Amino acid sequence: xxxxxxxxxxxxxxxxxxxxxxRGSEAALLHNGDVVxxxxxxxxxxxxxxxxxxxxxxxxxxxxxxxxxxxAPAAVEHLLGALAAGAPYCPIxxxxxxxxRQQLAEAFGSADIGGSAAYVLCTSGSTGAPKPVVVxxxxxxxxxxxxxxxxxxxxxxxxxxxxSLSWDTCxxxxxPALTCGATVVFDCEAxxxxxxxxxxxxxxxxxxxxxxxxxxxxxxxxYLKDEQTGxxxxxxxxxxxxxxxDPTRLQQWRSMATGGITLLNTYGCTETxxxxxxxxxxxxxxxxxxxxxxxxxxxxxxLPHVVDHISDEGELLIAGPGLATGYLGFAELTxxxxxxxxxxxxxxxxxxxxxxxxxSAGGLLYPRGRVDEQVKVLGVRVHxxxxxxQLTTHPAVAGAVVVGTRSLGRxxxxxxxxxxxAVSAAELKRYLRARLPGQFVPSRINFVAALSYTSxxxxxxxxxxxAAADLENKGTVQ
Length: 478
Hints:
CATH class of the largest domain: Alpha Beta
Distance between the termini: 58 Å
Number of strands: 25
Shape: globular
Number of helices: 15
CATH superfamily of the largest domain: ANL, N-terminal domain
Radius of gyration: 23 Å
Strand content: 25-35%
CATH topology of the largest domain: Rossmann fold
């Protein structure tokens, strides 16, 4: 199926149907070596959609399709089945702790979303509770068409499904591929935690496209350098995103035998539907001036369907047809995050990303941090308040502050805890792991006698960190 045909198809599910009609005998999915053809996948999707429609008939209207999914073909069947039935798809990753899964299920089922929604995903919230982001079918379809072009996908591609199924990166792995006739690969070795096994799988499955968190890519580069090994010849595109690129790792990547592989840095928010900005950092088609850069790497320039603006404070604002509808059940928060403002044009709905950037004459944007304390850990946005909320529910915790710290090119969380009872850092980490995704669990927990406060009564994070440093020097920090 050609890209031009996809552009003529307004809805992403109709694009999949058209692809399946002409690619029926070809591989749509590869699961641990077993092939699922486009025809077979289309049949499974139709059966799943019929189940959703039956539920609608009993309930009287389409309801959120909340489903616990794992890295297997069923995830695709439920995604496409929900789209076929007109149900908002609400994935809950089976790898999450049970308490977190229950929290997401309650968030998804809290309101009537409406028929135009394609999916709902939760992002970390400043209130300590997840914020369900509603994305429309139009926003999804526009973005998927843009990503097919950006990735230059063809039916010959094999795209690894690597991302968590609770984050929209999994959609950018699945949907562009399945609307252009490519193959999506599911393999348990992708999540083994072993870099040698991961690379062996990429070679054996003849993967052509990898979509990786920048933090994982940093580890991959370090492994390739230390082991003096290379990447499979089939690999043509590595997509990264989620946090700043370490310039040292980029230079190491460029010094290896990776000249035939395109390294694509990307940026986007859940509220702006997957990717909004991208730039080639290495490989075929990379701009010479970018290839020659030694310092801070750009996060990208806007895709054709995206409108962007940098505020006077340096915050990146985004508009265009890819914007999310808003936050499910949070009308005031939606109004604040998506205000209608005129920035050199007619009044337009903008999303305030909270990311500080600077722009160049060529339209490239460079990251300059966050407006608030929200941080990205392993490519996932984490608001410290959500972690603090969970920490303070532990009976041995009297108070807690969580901050993001950056060391050796990686962002991690550090917690400063005021104990009410005797408790160990290990116990608190176990407590959090049972309630939050792994990215939300602090790498380090420091115990302090008390939190520090500003004159206005707000927690003074800097002073608290300094107090913890003093205790560490005395050998009393755990």
